[in-house]
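1st attempt posting a full record on here, be nice pls
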Amino acid sequence: MTIEMTTREENGQGASNPDEDGRMENSTRGVNRVSNSSDPVDQQGRHPSPCQSELRRKQIHSAYIFFAFISLGMVVALHGPTFLDLLLILNVHLEQGTLLFTSGSVGYLGGSLIGGIVYDRFNKELTLMISTLMMGVLTVVLPFTRYLPVMAVVNCLRSCFMGGLDAGGNAIMVRIWGKDVGPYMQAVHFAFGLGGIISPFVAAPFLLSRPEDPSNVTDTSSTPHENLTDGFTLSSIPTPYVDNSGDNGFNSSFNLTNSTGFSDAVQQTQVHIPYIIIGLLAVLSSIPFIEMFRSKRAEKRRQSLNQGNEEKEKEIRHIPLTTCLKATFLVLMGFFYITYACVEDTFAGFIMTFVVVHLRWSKTKGTRITSVFWISFSVGRLFAIVISKYLTPWKMLAVDFVLLIVSFLALLLGVESSEAFSWVCTVAVAIAMASIFPSGMTWMDKSIMKISGKVASFLLVCASIGSMANPLLVGYLFENDTPMWFIYLLFAHTLACSAIFAVTTLLIWWIGKRWRSRKSRAENDQRQPAELVQDDDADKSL
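the predicted structure (as tokens):
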């Protein structure tokens, strides 16, 4: 399902001279041809060619970006498991607490937009270093802010730098690997998911626990301090989460008792420790970008290789699109990422709250299912690195959406029937979502238009809009109606995203069909005059 034109090199052009590496293709294939050449020095490995050194440089710099995205994934995934403890520190309702999700999404949106502009105008490595450094510093500061407006501002600023790192990291991977970026883009997002796996395990030992047996709870008949979230009561006992559900297993009161009990509970939570650990790791991951910055300035000769990369990128030329068609595709892909971000971010951020509040699980199990989600998510992206070499991005997206629809439908029908069923559906949802984001960008680059820095920034902004708007709606319906709206809305968003994918596919097919028809007519028109000339020459010879 593509509308691209690909021009291939002649076989004789593939055997480039190793001494002319400045004009060689800046790709892994080009490097492999050089390394497999008949040059004895290259085969023995005593003096690696410039292209081999360039490949090593790409791999090292890619490893730096992978490290930064691991820390980015840890920071993003930390919010879900620690959300209830942050609400406890702030002493606010669940509906009020969703402001943290919204402020983070607003910051991510702004960071994605500003980051793309700054990335194009200033030094790319230095921009990534500052973004990663500030992300780590603000992560350390966040849990020490005890007022909701202050924490929301800090979270917004932190997310702004996170969005800059996300936009710049994706853009620099495209710049490093060119048209061969497909597997490496999947690898970057796998690194993000790997961070998401680690983060809940780091947070779990420091969260307040909810007792499994309500009989161990002392009397909680004291005057409520303030309504916080659904289904719990905070007592002055060492473990403040107490089961106070009604007959239906759900009660809209998560009450804080006397000020002494509330104060003790706040003192007992150690939620600041995982924020310090992960924040310092993010600061550490910013250091390698300094080496990238220095090495780039020291190696001016890479400019010739970059020129070769630009020449190779010209091998894939998309069908010229009118301004109206370009705008149409951008709008479609923008809504594609808005709806997808609603599904991914909301599921990852609310799954623990959903199972603890609605399914009456303990917080330990809630943390574990969050970890299982991120583990499955990362495993899916790991397999996507390999699968992307054999399946087109369109086929990968089609399989993902079929599995995602089936998984949410099963979750909708059977989430309350069995605990094991919830675990299985969570794994299926994570695997289905794993490769959608990077595959969507690769699909757009190969089938519609080239992913420039501005286009990538636009898509990330759209994803941030989805992440920003949905938590407010989910939080409101979660607290005022039923937590099942968490599943209802995500299933609706999945259907909407699938429909956008189908419409975009049909539009691509229609444009491709029209272009092939016009091209065929043009070729026939060119051949007809040549045939007439040949007939005239034949008549003259007679």
